[in-house]
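*** Backbone structure tokens ***
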Amino acid sequence: MIKTLLLVGTGGFLGSISRFLASRFIQENLTVAFPFGTFFVNITGCFLIGLIYGFSEKSSLLTSGWKMFLAVGFCGGFTTFSTFANENLALIRDGDFFHFLLYTGLSVFLGITATFLGVVITRLF
């Protein structure tokens, strides 16, 4: 159990740092109201978790330890629903209902689509 906790914790640590850096880089280079930084990491994280689960179901390429490190740890730290919810609340507070609906709709639709594509890609190999 200690090994699993260390794997998940280390993955989460690396995922959180990666989220922060990727999101910050994107937001600093785009001057729009739409929160592209969080949007990007959430869709990318969905795609990654699809790849991870797809490969783990297809073969023994990923051990349970690697799956915990990558899916639960890294992807769990990399994606962030709480930031997503907070950014949506800010859009609503600002009266920016267009970006609120666009962000929410695209995040849910593309997140599910990206996860599905990740799984489909693993079936091709």
Notes: The CA atoms of residues 44 and 114 lie 7 Å apart. The chain has a mean pLDDT of 91. The radius of gyration is 16 Å. The chain has one domain: 2-123.
